[in-house]
Amino acid sequence: MRKVFVYPLVIAGTAAAGLVATGSPASAHGYVSAPPSRQALCASRAVADCGQIQFEPQSVEGPKGLRSCDGGVSQFAILNDNSRAWPARTVGSSVTFTWVFTARHRTSNWEYFVGNTRVAVVDGGNQQPDAVVSHQVDLSRFPGRRTVLAIWNIGDTANAFYSCVDLNVGGSSAPSTPAPPPVRPTTPPPSSAPPPPANASGTWATNTAYKIGEEVTFQGKRYRCRQSHTSLSGWEPSIFTLALWLPV
């Protein structure tokens, strides 16, 4: 694992190690999963009525050099609709953006924009990235409600992938509430069936929104979700182990 720190126009970031097997769907690429991008909010159903993007948040691909949330893709135009009142994540002045890559193209660089101002750039070295990559970006010059456009510029094509992330930079977080007192365990009624594991979601299935910490069974093995996402055919836990799922 390699760590590099990013400040405005200076590389800063950490790459989380991960492996992805070949055989991913051709339409699968990558997007910002945390703080949740607009397509991530649609995929998790935190924002309703998003259309096709809810099923393929990783597919916002368009020519390099655009400054739009939808990458110029008409069926994803909802991502440009600011009237949707997209939820803004409250963050500090330094923000860690995490990308999930479902097809790891060689990378020219990653760029981060607030309006027309490029606030950070991270060199990809024309190398294949890890399955999960994080960059730390200084947004101290941009307090308040902001939309950050994160761009993944591919090294071996003329295209890029686009993710817009709505933030409340430097905003105050809600006051924490004290933890409730511990509950004394009670004796369950007799049962021949063992109790289900915590956070169990049953058997892995396609077109299902999974949240961090949820557990599934696939081909007789258990996996715990490490990145919120909506599953697709070809995204089975055995393929995306370490990227989206961790063996339990």
Automatic annotation (TrEMBL):
Biased segments, Pro residues type: 177-198
Signal peptide feature range: 1-28
Gene Ontology biological process terms, A to Z: carbohydrate metabolic process
InterPro entries: CBM5/12, CBM_sf_5/12, Cellulose/chitin-bd_N, GlcNAc_Chitin_IntDeg, Ig_E-set
UniProt KW Ion transport keyword: no
Coiled coil: none
Gene Ontology CC: one annotated term: extracellular region
Gene Ontology molecular-function annotations: carbohydrate binding; hydrolase activity, hydrolyzing O-glycosyl compounds
Region: Disordered, residue numbers: 173-204
CDD domains, alphabetized: ChiA1_BD (cd12214), LPMO_AA10 (cd21177)
Domain Chitin-binding type-3 as annotated: residue spans: 201-248
Keyword terms, alphabetized: Hydrolase, Signal
Entry superkingdom: Bacteria
Pfam families: CBM_5_12, LPMO_10
PANTHER family in UniProt: CHITIN-BINDING TYPE-4 DOMAIN-CONTAINING PROTEIN (PTHR34823:SF1), GLCNAC-BINDING PROTEIN A (PTHR34823)
The name this protein goes by in its record: Cellulose-binding protein
Source species taxonomy: Bacteria, Bacillati, Actinomycetota, Actinomycetes, Micromonosporales
Gene this chain is encoded by: cpbD_2
